[in-house]
Amino acid sequence: MRNCNPLNIRYVKGNTWLGCFGSDGAFCKFRDRKHGLRAAFVLLRIYNQKHQKWTIREIISRWAPENENHTENYIRRVCRYMGVKDDQVVKFGDPDYQEMGCKMVAAMSVVENGKDVLTCHELKEAWAFAFGEKGGEA
């Protein structure tokens, strides 16, 4: 959370995330949480569209691979927090999935940071910042 990067997005030189001003050596540093959350939503939509990852299991298996995490525990914790099964589809950027997408990012933040600190308002504001009112990228 100190980097305003609730999902711990890794820093990759050449990525130009809006509001990112460098790294702490491993993770992106954003000017505020709104920009960090925007990057998370956009990256998760890339997982949907480019990598064809649509279910919670598919998305998290890519986000938190076994070589870095205990992926099964991560999936279980996110699903428990959300109250859904791991085959739940989440379409980032689709207005019909805004609530589900916000819940997933909140759950992932809890797993990444060990505490629940994101508000519903903050998540919805970041969703709109990422995708605009109609779901297209802003």
Descriptive key words:
single chain; 138 residues; mainly alpha; two-stranded antiparallel ribbon; 5 helices; 2 strands; 47% helix; 5% strand; globular
Can you describe what's shown?
- With 138 residues, this protein is mainly alpha-helical.
- The protein has 5 helices and 2 strands.
- Strands 1-2 form a two-stranded antiparallel sheet.
- The longest helix has 17 residues.
- The model has no long low-confidence stretch (mean pLDDT 94).
What is the fold's blueprint, element by element?
Blueprint: E1 20-23, E2 28-30, H1 33-49, H2 56-63, H3 71-82, H4 98-113, H5 120-131
Antiparallel strand pairs: 1-2
Total E-strand runs: 2
Topology as a string of helices (H) and strands (E): EEHHHHH
Distance between the termini: 24 Å
What topology, given as strand order, has the largest sheet?
A: 1-2
Beta-strand content estimate: 5-15%
Major sheet characteristics: 2 strands, antiparallel
The structural class is mainly alpha
Number of helices: 5
Mean pLDDT equals 94
- What is the CA-atom radius of gyration, in angstroms? 14 Å
Helix fraction bin: 40-55%
Shape: globular
